Amino acid sequence: MAALQTALALLGAVLLGVVLMAVLGHNPWEAFTGLIAGSAGTARGLAATVRKTSPFVLTGLSVALAMKAGLFNIGTAGQFLMGSVGAVWVGIQFEGLPVWFHLPLAVAMGIGFGCAWGAIPGWLKVSTGAHEVITTIMLNHVATLFTGWTVFAGSTLSTTRPGPLWDSTAGPVSASTDVLASARIPWIFGPPLRIHWGIALALLAALLVWWLMERTRFGFELKTVGAKPLAARYAGMRSGWTTVLTMTWAGGLAGLAGAIETLGVNHKFAPEFGGGVGFEGITIALLGQGHPLGIVLASLLFAALDAGAPKMQFDSGVPSDIIQVIQTLILIFVAVPALATWLLDRMSRTQHVSAVAASLRI
Amino acid sequence: MASFTQSTARFTAGLSLLLLTGAFLVEYAPFADIQAIRMLFGARVLNFALCAAIPLILGALGGILCERSGIVNIGIEGMMLAGAFAAFVAKTATNHWALGPSLLLGTCATLLTGAAMGLLHALFCLRFGMHQLISGTALILLSMGISATFFDRDAVAVGKFAPWPVPLLSEWPVIGPLLFNKPPITYVALLAVAVVGFALAHTRWGLRTRAIGEHPRAADTAGVAVLRLRYLNTTLGGALAGLGGGYLVLEAVGQFQEGMTAGRGFIALAAVIFGNWHPVGALGASLLFGYAQAIQNELLLAQATILPRHFISMIPYLVTVIAVSGLVGRVRAPGSLGQSYLRETEV
Question: What ipTM score was computed for the predicted complex, to two decimals?
Answer without folding.
Answer: 0.90
